[in-house]
Amino acid sequence: ETHAWLQDYRAFYDGIDPTIMTVGEIWNNTYAVADYVSDEELELAFEFDLASAILHSVDNGSSRALDGSLPTVLEQYPTNQFATFLTNHDQDRVMSRFRGNEAKAKLAATLLFTLPGVPFMYYGEEIGMSGAGRDENKRVPMQWSAEKNAGFSPKQPWIEMNEDAVERTVAVQATDPDSLWSHYKDLIALRKANPALLSGETEIIQTNYTEVFAFRRYTEEQELLIVVNLDEDPFELGLLALEETLTPLDPSVEMTSIVAPQQAMIYTIAP
Predict the structure, then answer these.
(1) Which residues face 255 on adjacent strands?
(2) What are phi and psi of 182, to 5 degrees?
(3) How far is the C-alpha of 267 from the C-alpha of 225, rounded, in Å?
(4) How far apart are CA 128 and CA 181, in angstroms?
(5) By the 8 A CB rule, do 196 and 222 touch?
(6) Nearest-CA neighbor of 54 among 254, 191, 228, 171?
(7) What DSSP assignment string belongs to the chain?
(8) Beta strand 223-229 with 264-269: parallel, antiparallel or unpaired?
(9) How far is the CA of 87 from the CAs of 58, 109, 111, in angstroms?
(10) 192 contacts 198 by C-beta, under 8 angstroms
């Protein structure tokens, strides 16, 4: 009955405006969620298994969770027709999941914006707001500035602000090029500027190392290799067979096969 209702709803709003887009929340496994995404039902649905895999792989320093989830996601959905995210309003926030580890928060964001799908951000994620346990703790007011109530409102909010509300704010992080906020801003710009990240196909690259997760994003006009070091130590990846065809996407970055701890390298693959 739910599928029949969604099909009727899709026909209704397509008749009003074919550019309308819907996203569904079906909190279930990939196989169940993908069943709601088609040309006749939802355009997108939140991909919970992949969100969990991103967090587990980053937190554990191992690609196993992503290796198990992403192939199924790519197989079950039309190309890029799923909504990616890290956590939502019902889950412990990313920074709480990573116990305040900002390097892990940055790495998770990097995966969110380089993996396929349509990325969604939960407010406050881009500045590392914390929140766990009761739902109210995960939904505290946004931390904008050092003004009263962290700049959220001159009126008393319905719940107390986080303890770090005056230090961890948009105002502070927007002036710091190394902040989590700046990292998110750079990732959004990166994705928008590169067709392969925005709408490209995806191929998982086997590295034989659980510390590393690598994948290719490509369109007819651009091909990128993304190499993610999940480990807390530098990793030297054997790229010798590809060195003649690879260049760093960022021209200010020196060509190297050494990927820094909990960071990613993005290479352009020459035709």
Answers:
(1) none
(2) -65, -35
(3) 5
(4) 8
(5) yes
(6) 228
(7) -HHHHHHHHHHHHHHH-TT---EE---S-HHHHHTTBSSSSBSEEB-HHHHHHHHHHHHHT-SHHHHHHHHHHHHHSSTT-SEE-S--TTS--HHHHTTT-HHHHHHHHHHHHHSSSEE---TTGGGT----SSGGGGGPPP---SSGGGGS-SSPPSSPPPTTTTTS-HHHHTT-TTSHHHHHHHHHHHHHH-HHHHH-EEEEEP-S-TTEEEEEEE-SS-EEEEEEE-SSS-EE---GGGGGGEEESSTTSPP-SEEPTT-EEEEEEP-
(8) antiparallel
(9) 14, 11, 13
(10) yes
Report the pLDDT value the prediction gives residue 244, as an integer from 0 to 100: 60
Q: Does residue 237 carry a pLDDT above 80?
A: no
- pLDDT score for 240: 44
Sorting pLDDT into bands at 50, 70 and 90, what band is 252? confident
* Count of positions (residues) in the chain: 271
Residues in CB range of 216: below 8 A, 6 or more apart: 202, 203, 205, 223, 224, 225, 226, 269
Q: Angle 48-60/64-76 helices, nearest 10 degrees? A: 160
